[in-house]
Amino acid sequence: MQGLLFVASCCGYNTEGFNARDILERKINEVSLSDDKDAFYVADLGDIVKKHLRWHRALPRITPFYAVKCNDEKAVVMTLAAMGAGFDCASKNEIQMVQSLGIPVEKIIYANPCKQASQIKYAAAHGVQLMTFDSEVELVKVARCHPEAKLVVRIATDDSKAVCRLSVKFGATLKTCRLLLERAKELKIDVIGVSFHVGSGCTDAQIFTQTIADARLVFDMGAEYGFNMHLLDIGGGFPGSDDGKFKFEEFAAVINPALDRYFPADSGIKVISEPGRFYVASAFTLAVNIIAKKLVFNEQAGSDDEEDGSDEGTFMYYVNDGVYGSFNCILFDHAHVMPVLLKRQKSDEKLYSNSIWGPTCDGLDRIVECCNLPELQVGDWMVFENMGAYTLAAASTFNGFQRPQIHYVMSRPTWQLIQQIKEDVHLPEADSHNAGGTVLPSCAWESGQELLSSSCTSARVSLNYCMEFLNQPVDN
Question: Do 72 and 146 sit in the same domain of this protein?
Fold first, then answer.
């Protein structure tokens, strides 16, 4: 049980009838009469559990290896570990963190094709064998530092329709793959499979079909050189929310038949993937507070746009998180964010042109260039949804501004389900100190306030209950 009590000291659980938005509003009410209105997150771990069930319904043959770089919060990692997920690590520190939480080595892939020699040696010393490569230099390095490694050759993809292209940096062409396999044979390094990544924020699911077909060709090449290749890693690129152009199930509808064609279920090929934002984007909601406000007029803002003839100007709102913190996703992940207001807007309420800025002294710290909102005041709150992917993981403390606190919540039925899943996957117990967690006497705590009886810690659910949960809607 101790290994499942994984969340940080701000963690909690909530009963039926509450959701993450309720907790967010309660937190705001708690500080309503105080000047201490720091930005904060509410993270619904139950949303991650639902995403995991949704994954297995849509892609039953594919084992997810969560991309730790997307959001490396320990509560996220342990939630996924409790459900039997694997982990895609890109560095020594990520491997170290995952292993400190009791994750076995067979659940880890060191999926960085360009690794520092000392970090390869670290992986070798700690039993991590599965890793990727895409060049001869990397092969030689691995042969010297980790000759027992099990290698996966990463191939390039057509990621021209992805938001964040990765094949400009990683991946070998089909022609190069033949040379790499020949070199691996000479070095007596075992190549066991193929990996690829269609790019983050992929907008064309059909790319999976072509790249899976390319992977089949590399498997056939491997057989020519005597390699027993039995692992296919289809990478990530899946959407993290349902408000975009494509839904996750649309990708699954393309991937499944491609796998059946090129890697049928009776072929003995294990298929894994490296989803990141799919799991965590919609689970995290960020609340920021307006700390300053300014009215500027067109001539002040340097605008030549006088078409509307308005001299009302534009409101500039300054909030207590910005692009050097959680909103780094705007710069690094091409994210487009828009605020949601807690106050319900009246139908006849006047809207004004606004821009939203972060708290640092850098002029680049702009969150939203232009949006229309009713007039707001210092002390009012803005909420940003779908803020779990590539936000906290890359946040800095520039100008001395600290990262927002995270409040974790989970419904009681989800808590019960995850305990059942944990028992089924036999997760090793993690040390609570290393996990950065507080062992809670109840599954119904939220930030230290007990909402349910502590007797729910001993609750168990039947397989029938799990199946009922699996059949529930998973809309976020």
Answer: yes
The reported pTM is: 0.84
As a whole number of angstroms, the distance between CA 237 and CA 235 comes to 7
Strand stretches in 222-350, DSSP E: 231-233, 270-273, 284-296, 314-319, 340-341
The residues, any chain, with a CB within 8 Å of residue 467's CB and separated by 6 or more, are: none
Helices (H) and strands (E) counted in the chain, each on its own, are 14, 20
Q: Which amino acid is at 329?
A: C
Q: Does 241 lie in the same domain as 352? A: no
Q: How far apart are CA 9 and CA 272, in angstroms?
A: 33
Do 292 and 266 sit in the same domain of this protein?
Answer: no
User: Which CATH number goes with the domain that contains 115?
Assistant: 3.20.20.10
Could you give the 3-state DSSP secondary structure of residue 353?
strand
Report the distance separating Cα 232 and Cα 109, nearest Å.
12
Q: pLDDT for 41-98, tens place per residue? A: 999 999 999 999 999 999 999 999 999 999 999 999 999 999 999 999 999 999 999 9
292, 403: one domain: yes
CB crowding 329-357: b at 16 or more within 10 Å, else e: bbeebebebebeeeeeeeeeeeebbbbbb
Distances (CA, A) of 373 to 16, 28, 176, 215, 351: 33, 20, 54, 49, 5
Number of domains in the chain: 2
What 3-state DSSP class applies to 120? helix
Same domain for 381 and 294: yes
Give the span between the Cα atoms of 337 and 353, in whole angstroms.
Answer: 16
Q: What 3-state DSSP class applies to 14?
A: strand
Quote the mean pLDDT of the chain.
82
**214 neighbors 197 (Cβ within 8 angstroms):** no
3-state secondary structure of 279: helix
DSSP-derived 3-state class of residue 445: strand
Tell me if residue 447 falls in helix, strand or coil: coil
Tracing tokens 């992805």 back to the chain, one arrives at 162
Domain stops at, among 364, 390, 408? 408
Residue 86 per-residue DSSP state: E
Give the residue numbers marked as catalytic.
361
How many C-beta atoms lie closer than 10 Å to residue 9's C-beta? 11
Using DSSP's 3-state secondary structure scheme, residue 229 falls into coil
